[in-house]
Predict the structure.
Amino acid sequence: MSTTSLRRVRQGSRPAAVLFDCLPLHFLLATFAGQGQRQQARAIDYLVEENRVLREHLGEKRFRLAGE
């Protein structure tokens, strides 16, 4: 290959090189976002189940606050 064709290849591959340089960062961000989403889903599941158990324990009684 001549020097000119090497320059074209290098210049043409710069956007791809930048893309590949950013991929590890994108992967890490997606991993952390997914982990946070799973933790949030587990917390919501726990609270829904806790509310179900507490409502079952209360029965038909209505819970009244002191100000009512």
Summary: The first helix runs from residue 3 to 12. The helical segments are 3-12, 14-58. Residues 17 and 67 are 65 Å apart (CA to CA). Residues 24-59 form one domain.
